[in-house]
Amino acid sequence: MPARPRLSTPCFALVIALLAACGGAAPPPVGDACETDDDCPSGEVCSGGACSAPRDAGEPLGAPEIDVSPDTLDFGSPQLGVQVTQELTVMNRGDGELTLSRVQVIEDDSLSEYTAAPSGLVTIGIAPGESLRISVTLTQQDAEVDRGELRLSTDDADEPIVPVTLVSELKGTPRLSARPAVVDFGVVTFGDLRTRDLDVTNAGTGNAPLGVSSIEVTDETGLGGAFSMEFLLVDVGTGEESPATLPVLLSAGGQALRARVTLDSRTLGAGAVPAESLRIRSDDADDPDLRLPIIGAVIGCALPEVERCNGRDDDCDGAIDDGDPGSGAPCAAPLPGACGAGTLHCISGAPSCVSTTGATPETCNAVDDDCDGDLDESLVRPCSTSCGSGIEFCALGGWHGCNAPSAAPDLCDRLDNDCDPTTPDGAADALVGAACDGTDGDLCAEGAWSCSTGTLSCSDSSTTLVERCNGLDDDCTSATADGTGETTIGTPCDGSDADLCAEGVFACAAGVLACTDGPGFALDLCNGVDDDCSGATTDGSGDPLLGTACDGADTDLCAEGTWTCSAGLFACSDSSGGTPDLCNGLNDDCNADTTDGSGEAALGAPCDGADADLCADGAFICAGGALGCADGAGSALDLCNGVDDDCNPITADGSTDPLAAAPCDGADSDLCREGVNSCTGGVLACTDLTAGVADLCNTLDDDCNPASSDGSGDPTVGAACDGADSDVCLEGVTTCTAGALTCSDATSGTIESCNGLDDNCDGIADDGAAAVLCPAPAGVAVTSCGGGAGCAISSCSPNRGNCDGVYANGCEIDTSSNNSHCGSCGSACAIGSCASGSCGLVITVEGHANVSVPCVLGDYSCQAHYVCNAVTGLLCVHQGYDCYTGSAGSWYPPDGASGDSNFSFAYAYDFGGGGTSGGYGNICACTRSQMTRYGLADVHTYCGVGRWVRR
């Protein structure tokens, strides 16, 4: 059946024009923009921002569509602790309800500085065309740029998760300000406590916080302990104080750190306050280590008290802790073993225990008699058993671990384990007589172990047992399956089904051989194959399709034949021709997809109906099982097209064209109708010859085109511009917003950096202080900017070195202790280790291990001190004379026993060789027991001494 005639595009335009000429409103195109139902034509509703027909009650709901604006929330440059809130709008532009299920904030650190409302798991429905506002608040807490993301989860299938970028920035430079500049305690009466406050603030610009890492009183005089300190955070506006712990961050202008310093004059005598300083460490690039002087004086003395062991002059007699107050009580000394018994004495302002017991030889009594930190060490004695002799050792006051041979069960090893020659070899061996498996292939224990010439052997000599399908473990191993030794397992077989095909294999199940061929049988299909393995059945005899109705190769779909099988292929016996579908209300060709009358020859032929024109502008159609002409009742209008539209040569071309003489827009670039149409030569021409009107940024539709945005023709829109920031860089473009020109440059003033470029566009490259352009890395004292060459290190802090030449990691080497760069870069210590910027030495003590000392070459007293400590294991003390001549001095252990007064480590002279070359230090000892006590070699003759050699 031919397709029904359709109204052409020109005809549709004609209908629209006729409706307009008759005073009727033309229907708006689908999707007109709207905000409410009042913006839409009558009978339509506003859904998702567009006009559309209302949904029927039974019509299924449409799909939601999320639209989030803006997609980035820029919080600018907030101060520390100040809350800044931004909002975004979530709109549903679809025609089904949008459900917001989750609002999640994700940040690049763990401080939780961003919060959202609403937040978390929610269930909020947003109707089509409706919107929801979400607020996000930033509370700046650290000195870092805070970046994050707000994730919105909805049931929008195309965008189930919508991310919104969250960002803030840092700008400006922190500056430390401390008031007062001098910590002045004035005149303090002895015994009083006096407090002074120092306020530290951030006097910098912008929102960059100042980090204060420490505030402390120096201890250069050794009396820094007279000062104590507490820290408070102070609100500059209200003066409210709260406790603080360093390090802290201070925002610019709103907060102060108060250091409250207290002087305890009871720890001092009369006179000037110790010449100490208050030291403030911060990340102020210009003054990272600020020091403020502390001044004042102490006069007089409070009422005298009883002298106590506290490092103070309690009785005001000018002496501290005089008379050894609090001494004499027994105490436990910080020494091991029996040496721990002691007596209290006042030392350096605190009670200290001094040992009163010396070391004695070690005995087996669970006591550290020799005070070396070990109990009963190295004590052994002889012991014996029936099998021989040995030794045992002392532990925790008792004797243990006798290693003499002991009687044992007589194993099969040709040894007399029980020390009894009458018992045969292996008599007590647990394996002798036990069941065993021989060297056959099964695991069955069919023999027994016996001992012969010290070797165990198994009497199992049977052959390998085969695993049969009988439910038994024939080979005595559970690892092999039942029946694995049967040769028929896995061979093809035919089961009890109706066919003759071997479609299964033999398997062992529950100890019985069975065929896996199931009860079903193979049908003999029409495929030229003997499917049921029986030559007696014909090909296809079991095919279910055989003999069923079928449609042949004709053009209709009527099943007028049956299926037959020939040479392994199916053939349909339908040989009738295709049946045409006539206009009679019947399905002649048995095809529901072809319309009634689709086979009629006249269908679609031109015809003229009962209208007023003379044109055959209709076509035959099939309706209700009968042919009819579809020519409408209206007459054809004579349009301006050079064609006799109404088939009447008397009427002029375009005489009834509704567009003739109507207002029109010419070929200019605007859409304003400034002319009228006229018909000439079959073509409508517009008299509008004015030039196109540019759409300026003035909230007016200058070019009469609502599709073009306000200002789209303005020559200034899109031009580069500079915003209200502190630089002069053209980092934005001019845009039109609400009829006014604005600049999109929202960046803060671009900060100049050391790169040879004019970053802030002021005409000067790298202008600014070197400390600002090049912040000092760790260990750097002064930096410099080399323009295009970048930042450089001018000088390092004391005891620091830039040994790798890299700026980024600063002066990375501590030259006071680095063996490869001792004192300066590249100065490696050939021997010893680096201390205080100088290389130490390795001392060889003859008869003892080497000793590493941090002393420099030539400081013999220092070397002797460290050698004495290392060899004796004690903290040696100094005496102003050497052990023989008394000319230079020596170091000796403080617990020397009677007769050890001449045991010491002398320096400056070589007594061991009898000369004075200075090449050696000397160990003076007058008794051989002293040498043995400290593990020294007796290699010299002068009073039985050893020596230490400098290397």
Structure description:
- By secondary structure, the protein is mostly beta strands.
- Helices cover 4% and strands 31% of the residues.
- The strands form 17 sheets. Strands 54-53-59-58-57-56-55 form a seven-stranded antiparallel beta sheet, covered by helices on one side. Strands 13, 15, 18, 20, 21 and 22 form a six-stranded mixed beta sheet that branches.
- The longest helix has 13 residues, at 9-21.
Brief write-up:
This protein is mainly beta and 951 residues long. The protein has a seven-stranded antiparallel sheet with strand order 54-53-59-58-57-56-55, covered by helices on one side. Strands 13, 15, 18, 20, 21 and 22 form a six-stranded mixed sheet that branches. Strands 4-11-10-6-8 form a five-stranded mixed sheet, with no helix packed on it. Mean pLDDT is 80; it is low at 1-31 and 910-918.
Which parts are unreliable, with pLDDT below 50 for 5 consecutive residues or more? 1-31, 910-918
Strand order of the largest sheet: 54-53-59-58-57-56-55
Mean pLDDT: 80
Number of helices: 4
Shape estimate: flat
- Fraction of residues in H or I helices: under 10%
How does the helix and strand content classify structurally? mainly beta
Distance between the termini: 117 Å
Please tell me how large the radius of gyration is. Answer: 55 Å
